[in-house]
Structures are given as C-alpha cells and as structure tokens.
C-alpha cells in the first residue's frame, strides 16, 4: 500500500471520527468532512466536501438510512480514480446503491468494521472486519485485504448476502436484545452475577450507539425480520413450557 495515499472520510459522527483516527494511526494522510464538524480527530485534517470526495480512497461513514440520499447528492463529484468504500452495518443494501449510483468507472468495495468506539477503545487488533467485493479489480481488493490484515484485524472476505444472513443472527439479535433489556430499566444490585453483569454490558454497548443504527439494522437487513420471528417463537416456547410446569402438566 502506498504510504502517500490520501484517504477521505465522509461523515465525522461518533463512528466516522473513530474510523478516521484509526486510519491516521496506521500511517495514512486522512482528511475528513462532516456537515456540522468543527474539529477533526487526532491526526486527521478537516477538509471541504469536494476535497474528501476526490481523495484516492473515500470511506462513507454515514447512517444506513442516509446513505442513499448522500450518495445521490455526492456521486457526480467523486474523483474518477477514487476508490469508494462504505462502512454500513448491512451490506446488500449499500452495495446495491453503489452499483446503481456511482459512475461506472469508479471502483467500490463494501466493508463492515464490526467494532466501534466502545469495542475498539483499547485497539482493534483481533476484531472482525468484513470486506465484500462490489465492483473492483482483484488486485485492488487484495491490496486492501492485506492492509487490514496488517492492522491485525480478523479479515473476513465474503458475499454481501452471507454477511447479512449471519449478521442478522449475531449483531442484529444483540442490538435487539440490548434495546429490549434497556426498556426494563435494569440497575445495579449487590446480587449481580457474572451473567447479569454481562447482560448489562450488552445493554451499555448497544445503547451507546445511536438509536437510528438499531432501527436501520432491523429495517435494511433482509434477514432481520426472520431473526425477530425466530426470537419471538423461542420466547413463546419457553413461556409455554413454564406455563405447563405451573399447571402441573
């Protein structure tokens, strides 16, 4: 990977700022843009929208639900030789948008860093990073797989469909349970077991993320509804088993 490669990060929210700082810490020259950003993370330079859109590599760090409108508005200004990557937590939907809305000569890769400011606060080594080819040359894809492996990330190369199927039953279900448990307003107790503390950690991590992420995970992953129905069926099965015990059957 070229040391002087200029990386643009579009969107400097909670995750975008974290991701821009991570890229800068691995030796890249990073310029970031956010509509309301007044400062940039350590090692990152705040730039104009057009400057970010014409970088050598452009990472979109915007919400899933905003991605279509942002791409529609910015695609005509993306540099001819700019490589585009998204960082959305679902993959089929943004990959489809990039194929449809980006100029045909622009190469694009779908990615999902499966960590964020909370899970990656002590470093990203060993954490999973999904990469899915959308429209790019094989050597470009392999260069970036090698780069992320250099970070000691656990790089997983797979199709967008495989990602969404598996993520619905891992990330999707975790966020669903975390948000559901938060509705119970559970608190600290001296009787807390290790299992209870683990549950509270799930609540804390999922609820630190924007609520919009939870809604987007459930709406834009085509396998999320199947996951929710499976979870409801499992809960009904357990409740029915308890009822039979209480009834002495």
Written description of the protein model:
The protein is of the alpha/beta class. The chain has nine helices and eight strands. Strands 3-2-1-4-5-6-7-8 form an eight-stranded mixed β-sheet. Helix 6 (160-182) packs across helix 7 (194-208) and helix 6 (160-182) crosses helix 9. The longest helix is centred in the last third of the chain and has 23 residues, at 160-182. The protein is elongated, with a radius of gyration of 20 Å. The N and C termini lie far apart (67 Å).
Key traits:
249 residues; alpha/beta; 8 strands
Summarize the structure.
The chain has 249 residues and is an alpha/beta fold.
Largest pleated sheet: 8 strands, mixed
Strand content: 15-25%
* Tally of DSSP helical segments: 9
Low-confidence stretches: none
Protein topology:
Blueprint: E1 6-10, H1 14-25, E2 29-33, E3 44-46, H2 49-53, E4 57-60, H3 64-74, E5 83-86, H4 92-101, E6 108-113, E7 128-135, H5 138-150, E8 154-157, H6 160-182, H7 194-208, H8 211-220, H9 224-246
Parallel strand pairs: 1-2, 1-4, 2-3, 4-5, 5-6, 7-8
Antiparallel strand pairs: 6-7
């Amino acid at each position: 990977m070229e040391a002087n490669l200029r990386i643009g990060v579009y969107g400097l929210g909670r995750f975008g700022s974290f991701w821009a700082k991570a890229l800068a810490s691995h030796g890249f020259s990073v310029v970031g843009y956010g509509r309301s950003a007044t400062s940039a993370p350590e090692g990152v330079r705040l730039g104009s929208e057009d400057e970010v859109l014409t970088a050598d590599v452009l990472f979109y760090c915007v919400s899933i639900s905003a991605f279509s409108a942002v791409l529609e508005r910015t695609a005509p200004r993306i540099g001819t030789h700019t490589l585009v990557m998204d960082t959305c937590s679902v993959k089929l939907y943004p990959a489809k948008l990039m194929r449809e809305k980006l100029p045909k000569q622009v190469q694009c890769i779908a990615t999902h860093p499966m960590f964020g400011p909370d899970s990656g606060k002590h470093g990203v080594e060993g954490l999973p990073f999904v990469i899915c080819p959308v429209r790019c040359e094989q050597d470009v894809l392999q260069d970036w797989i090698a780069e992320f492996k250099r970070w000691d990330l656990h790089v997983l190369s797979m199709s967008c469909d495989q990602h969404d199927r598996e993520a619905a039953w891992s990330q999707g279900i975790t966020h669903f349970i975390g948000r559901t448990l938060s509705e119970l307003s559970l608190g600290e107790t001296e009787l807390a077991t290790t299992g209870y503390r683990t549950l509270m950690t799930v609540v804390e991590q999922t609820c630190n993320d924007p609520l919009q992420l939870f809604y987007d995970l459930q709406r834009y992953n085509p396998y999320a509804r199947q996951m929710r129905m499976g979870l409801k069926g499992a809960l009904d099965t357990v409740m029915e088993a308890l009822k039979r015990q209480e009834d002495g059957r």
